[in-house]
Amino acid sequence: MEHADLAEELSRIVGPRFVRTERAELATFASDGLPTLRRTPALAVLPGSGREVSHVLAALHRRGIPFVARGAGTGLSGGALGEAPAVLVTLTRLSRILAVDPENRRAVVEPGVVNAALSRAAAPFGLMYAPDPSSQTACTIGGNVAENAGGPHCLKYGVTTNHILELEVALPSGDVVRLGCPGGDAWGPDLVGTFTGSEGMFGIATEITVRLVPLPTDVRTMLADYTSLRRAGEAVTAIITAGIVPAALEMMDHNAIEMVESSAYAAGYPVDAAAVLLVELDGSPAAVEADAVATRTLLEGSGARTVRVARSAAEREKLWQGRKKAFGAMGRISADLVVQDAVVPRTALPDVLEAIAAIGARHRLRVTNVFHAGDGNLHPNLSFDASDADQLARVHAASGEIIRACVAAGGTITGEHGVGLDKLAYMPLVFGPDELGLMAAVRRVFDPDEQANPGKVLPTSQCREWRPWSTA
Amino acid sequence: MEHADLAEELSRIVGPRFVRTERAELATFASDGLPTLRRTPALAVLPGSGREVSHVLAALHRRGIPFVARGAGTGLSGGALGEAPAVLVTLTRLSRILAVDPENRRAVVEPGVVNAALSRAAAPFGLMYAPDPSSQTACTIGGNVAENAGGPHCLKYGVTTNHILELEVALPSGDVVRLGCPGGDAWGPDLVGTFTGSEGMFGIATEITVRLVPLPTDVRTMLADYTSLRRAGEAVTAIITAGIVPAALEMMDHNAIEMVESSAYAAGYPVDAAAVLLVELDGSPAAVEADAVATRTLLEGSGARTVRVARSAAEREKLWQGRKKAFGAMGRISADLVVQDAVVPRTALPDVLEAIAAIGARHRLRVTNVFHAGDGNLHPNLSFDASDADQLARVHAASGEIIRACVAAGGTITGEHGVGLDKLAYMPLVFGPDELGLMAAVRRVFDPDEQANPGKVLPTSQCREWRPWSTA
Fold this sequence. Notes:
homodimer, alpha+beta, five-stranded antiparallel sheet, 20 strands
């Protein structure tokens, strides 16, 4: 009954078509990009404007009902999952690009705008939105802000937080605030930086001002293949140490190559290689040429068997297609796939890759590595069948061991997918109770009742309680 | 008496030599780089370690005495000024470089390490600390963190916040926390980003882990001179629009040229020019050569009278000396100098420079512009004599008009000097009561009693009060 009453109130705000309460409808919202967890929300509401978002949150606030914001649902840490009594606030209807300002190189978008659509809108002005998650043809800018998303080209251009200038935010109370200022430099405590990457715990961004960057005048894509995974890892360090900043520097291991080459996305990678490196350079033609000469020397010097340079846009596209569709290709060999995410110091890459292979072997799991080698951001992928309880248990155990190995090597538990539900238990590996407590206290500034994306990111039982308010 | 008692307690922590209570001693701490304000603290304490900082803060906390952290005192917004009953916590003794880790490109330093000393320590490893405020031979990393300092080379490399990985912080309670994690990517709410730029309101960083970047293999410095200030401004936009990212892109106007050339730091700038642009390119030799060709074409195309390229390290040094010592040169023509700081969209530079000239003329003040043109970060400098009340009043009035003109052009009130005391009144020009209130609430997470650098940055009377804690 309470449900029916809530549904009716929300219907008055967004229209009855945009409140979903049927079991079958809710099933489509019960999972995101993390295949190991399912959660069914009390209902799903699809507001059509920032104003409607604010009214929806105010209504939920009055009733003390928690909520979870959801964009395209491509997230890989379970961040967009909501369990009843939580309500799912789905933002896909807020998909308008409100302004592109080429002179000052910025754009204003609603949170449901698809990442690739924004770059398409900027392209006629010679500009692009730089952060490019592999899911960029589906994922939304709002989700990118929540997760502080990365992508292959973030090695050179920086992750999402480096590209967000201003935010309009509906707080969990329904209050609407603007964070940052039009000049781009928020002064005083940096609330835009604090919000970006807060994984839905601070409220919902209803309008996002992003930085645009010039499209490079020249791009060169190179593929190097190695018969030793260790040598490929060493090549990464050699390139970065030489002071070259590639636009992207990606690695795929033997398993990944094999899966891509046996799929519809075959990119011509040598199937007998232990690893390939995909190196992209961009900039002015002469700068690219100079860096390309130096990069080839380093690749060959570190033992590359062949170094191939894409000679046309089509060939470049094809080399990238193998990388971008690798996850799809993995889908062919197993029902489910966990895309793990962790970071290690670049110099630790060779050792950690060997450790991960050993963990996979011990748990009898196929591990495939496709990742952003240039910034040490690993993605060991575990193929499995979630309906097999034993396999699922082995995936969980192997995931934990992989994360611990990365932390032990001086790394951290996630590079770009966020903590969400999946990494909640690992937070104490890298943060102490003091810092977790401070994070929780900052969160309560925005969300005093902990109603936004509850139960995620911060393992509350491990947080020290900070006295939040003067008693003087 | 209370003073004597406090001095005695602090002496037990840091040693009697390092507690300063005499009027004459305190006079040296009564001003910083902002000449328009003086404040005398109750006493000054100079701890010798992070542990001593923590004990000092705990002692002050027990007594309910506020404090202000101070590094080298080079700040330009009055951020390091403390007025009795506040105690000044001076960090110059914490000047150890604790580690340089070339493999992972990071260094760990105490807050009192001088900016230039860190780059000197990194140079033997082919690395540098990128943010380079003009005061870099004196200012400290701790102060740079507090103010989120910029500098000429931040156009390419990013400001301080992009280079801080991990912090050990003594909170105002005396509690010591570590923010961030060794992997560099703090996940969850970004406390390192929140602390950086918080202008001493959150506590004192006692240990700072910074990112180091490779020294460029080639550097090219060019000087272009213009007979029109507007044309020089347009050249800046032309270079950036072409997708070139200079390491630095600085502008000096006619007044600045004249002062430099009549000083001991004469750099050979043409004294009849309306403006000079100093463009520095860095990277690999071929990339630099390519960008240099393109840059020269753009400079000449926008009306440069001459374009000079430094042919040796000595000549480069000399071109930069004029820029870096410009503030010193200005010191020769007047007793005092206010170095203003504001940001405008690059495209607004020509109009805003004309508006600033008009404001200076109306208030009969000599205005000199020396600034980071590439990122629209203006520094209009006002020469005056602070002992002349009428001049001082005109400086205040002109400063306010300049800041308002920048905000009206879509800019903001400070680019790199911070808000401190000087810009406090301007915060409501760019932030509403909601956002100011949220900033204040975030600050109270770290400093519930508002004892750290009180009365700065946040105009509390204009802040909306946010309910900070669940009442549910």
